[in-house]
Amino acid sequence: MHEFIRLKNQVTDKLDPAGDWVALLPIRLLLAYEFGTAGLKKFNGNNWFANYQDNFLFPFNVVPVEISWFMATWAEILGAFCLIFGLFTRFWAFSLIIVSIVAISGVHWPADWSGLSELWESYAISRKSDAHGNFRIPLLFIAMLLPLVFRGAGKLSLDHILARRFS
Questions:
Q1: For residue 73, what are the domain limits?
Q2: Which of 83, 104, 109, 144 is most open to solvent, judged by the fewest CB atoms within 10 Å of its CB?
Q3: CA dist 149 to 28, 52, 76, 90, 146, Å?
Q4: What is the rounded distance in angstroms from the CA atom of residue 28 to the CA atom of residue 56?
Q5: CB-based contacts of 138, cutoff 8 Å, min separation 6
Q6: What is the pLDDT along the chain (167 residues), one digit of tens a residue?
Q7: Would residue 12 count as lying in a domain?
């Protein structure tokens, strides 16, 4: 047992410093791809927010849909770009959490549910019908963005370079 603990400590001692550099990079890159793709689809597509504006959380439900569309599009595009390079990561991760919460409330939340079992049906990738939501993916994005809010981008980032340069 003592050998196992020693081996575990040796492995941990090697992994911890590497983790400071690369652990958050795959999360940043995956989220950058997902949000960047969504932002570019909005940039190249038609504004469909008018169909859902009444479902958005306050104050987004009173903002004109053109402004909401513009803000969501550019938050996703700029946020994705900055996540790739780890630039202002905490700000963009928090901003993308807000975008995801508004998306869940406006588009992905079920239209009607009377109990937790019906709500759980909406924790899905695709809708069974218009009455069922599909908040699983944006909820997973929020869970992936939280470490970036609390820990930052990691050492393999422009945030780390800027912090060392200006501290």
A1: 24-166
A2: 109
A3: 11, 28, 16, 4, 5
A4: 26
A5: 100, 101, 103, 104, 108
A6: 888 899 888 888 888 888 888 999 999 999 999 999 999 999 999 998 888 888 888 888 899 999 999 999 999 999 999 999 999 999 999 999 999 999 998 888 777 777 787 777 777 776 665 556 788 899 999 999 999 999 999 999 999 999 999 98
A7: no
Q: Cα–Cα distance between 53 and 5 in angstroms, integer?
A: 56
**Alpha carbon distance 74, 50 (integer Å):** 18
How far is Cα 148 from Cα 154, in angstroms, rounded to an integer?
Answer: 8
Handedness of CA 74, 77, 80, 84 (dihedral sign): negative
Instruction: Name the residue type at position 1.
Output: M
Sign, Cα dihedral of 58, 60, 62, 63: positive
Domains contained in the chain, number: 1
